[in-house]
Amino acid sequence: MGRKPRIWMPDQFYHIVARGNRREPLFHDPGDYHIFCYIMKQVYLNNAFELASFCLMTNHYHLQIRSVDQPLSKVIGLFNKRYADYYNTKYSVTGHVFEKRYFDSVILDKEGMLKVSRYIHMNPVEAGMVDIPEQYPYSSYQTMFSDDKRITMPYFDVKLILGYFSGNNRIENVQAYRAYMDGVELENSGACGHFSDFV
């Protein structure tokens, strides 16, 4: 039997998880992480998408993503194909870089958006890589709180998550999101989908 086609709802965000083949590392050094972000930026130029949260772990990545104009499977396919070409060339290897099909789960409401964002940003903490999410350099968490205009990620919009909070300004919304991150128990079900083996 052939694979079932993926359902694409253009107005909805999805939680995407893609993992290295045989659970091997996708990213070996800072340059690999930066190249993946560069690839996302290049894909964005001709296939616009929005990221609400993301985290690049050692052997997998998480995206909270919406693609309005192109099927999401095309966008993720471009990410993975271009990164695999880079990876195989840099490390002089051949074969699959990513394991099987990527995981996807549609996010239908505000609660789901916040739960998935928190799950993504807490992934390095849950994996024992850092003590707090602010310490992890390869996720959107630090960027959400930064005023550094040199950060150029046109596909990432902090307002997509911070806009759910009703502060009078960005600073108050940032504080509210930090409180949400600190005060809610991490869940591996519901809007986050079922993929505990990815952690």
Automatic annotation (TrEMBL):
Q: Which InterPro entries match?
A: Transposase_17, Transposase_17_sf
A molecular function GO annotation: DNA binding
SMART domains to which the protein is assigned, alphabetical? Y1_Tnp (SM01321)
Where is each Transposase IS200-like domain found? 9-123
A biological-process GO annotation = DNA transposition
- Name of the protein: Transposase IS200-like domain-containing protein
